[in-house]
Write a structure and sequence with these properties.
This protein is an alpha+beta fold. It contains three helices and six strands, in the order αββαββββα. Helices cover 33% and strands 37% of the residues.
Length: 123
């Protein structure tokens, strides 16, 4: 699973409890350019547990308009790796990439597309 924080049991629980999970990984061969996008449904308990675990692991979070964003950026041997998680109602979006600006942009676009595809939902 390409989600940063996947060492957290709460991530594994949320993934295993999800009835729908979609994961895509895009990359530029022979480079450090990549991103992954995971979209899943999430129940209230898993969302609360995931949020608490991510915050205790160093993620910074903010909630606005019913949407919670949690972000973390770190350096590794290759370069910067960043992850943005969105929790909106029963929706969980996670994006991992090379910068928070990039992962936030991808998460925003994914959320916009999901809102457009599901106009009767309150995402």
């Amino acid at each position: 699973m390409p989600i940063i924080g996947d060492e957290l049991s709460e991530v594994e629980t949320a993934i295993s409890d999800a009835s729908i999970t979609k994961n895509c990984i895009w990359g530029i061969p022979n480079s450090d350019g990549f991103f992954s996008l995971t979209i899943a449904d999430i129940n209230d308990t898993d969302a609360a547990n995931l949020k608490a675990a991510l915050l205790s692991s160093g993620y910074l979070g903010a909630t606005s308009g019913g949407a919670t964003a949690l972000e973390l950026s770190a350096e590794n041997k290759i370069g910067t790796i960043a992850t943005t998680h969105y929790l909106v109602g029963d929706l969980w979006i996670s994006v991992t990439g090379t910068s928070l600006d990039f992962t936030t942009d991808i998460a925003d676009r994914a959320l916009d597309e999901i809102r457009t595809a599901n106009p009767t939902r309150s995402y």
